[in-house]
Structure prediction request, 216 residues.
Amino acid sequence: MHVLLTAGPTYEPLDPVRFLGNRSTGKMGYALAEAFAAEGMQVTLISGPSALPDPVSPGIRTVRVETAAQMFAAAAEVAAAADVWVFAAAVADYRPAEVAVDKIKKSGDTLTLELVKNVDIAATLGQRKRPEQFAVGFALETTNELAHAQDKLRRKNFDLIVLNSLRDAGAGFGHDTNKVTVLDAAGQIVNFELQSKADVARGLVSLVLRYLNPTP
Ligand code: CTP
Ligand code: CA
Prediction:
């Protein structure tokens, strides 16, 4: 079994010294890579800029990228050969329309940046998903959480979507713990306890394995 896993933030350059990014640390994605590898699966971890070291567990190959476009190119290369796709990356939705060759100098009192939409990695690959392939997406919502997550699952052709809660203290960006709710395409909902990201990862992997090998 081969797992394609995106993780971490993306950085979208503005000039040689600046970028647009986000607060994703990659912790959840890296924990998932370890948890899949512990089940004997081959993992291609496509990681945006994360301060975490490359996982050393056998079976994990880490590909470092910076931008959404690079993450898409790396993911597209392995997607057809992977049995499971997990999109844990916090991909920047937009990037600066132009990347300045030289450092942008300070001038007026305001500065307006034009941004253009990035490729949606999960949605684009979702259109190429074969029936035997299994896709897991993530969502972080602050309003109408379940409805938005369900809508994303459908739009991106996910089999499962993992909804992150920001309401619970100790969950989300930068924390070592996380509280998630998982929805499937049939409308089933599984609530996970607030627990370490490593435990959430192990729970998610065993849930994915149960979908892949249903016991009668
Ligand atoms: N995703 C992706 N490529 C993008 C944006 C998102 O692969 N350019 C993936 C994420 O890795 C995640 C899922 O899509 O698994 C949902 O990401 P999210 O940011 O919640 O969804 P968006 O469609 O970008 O919607 P919005 O940010 O407006 O809520
Ligand atoms: Ca987004």
Observations:
- The chain has one domain: 2-98+111-212.
- The chain has a mean pLDDT of 95.
- Residues 197-212 form the longest helix (16 residues).
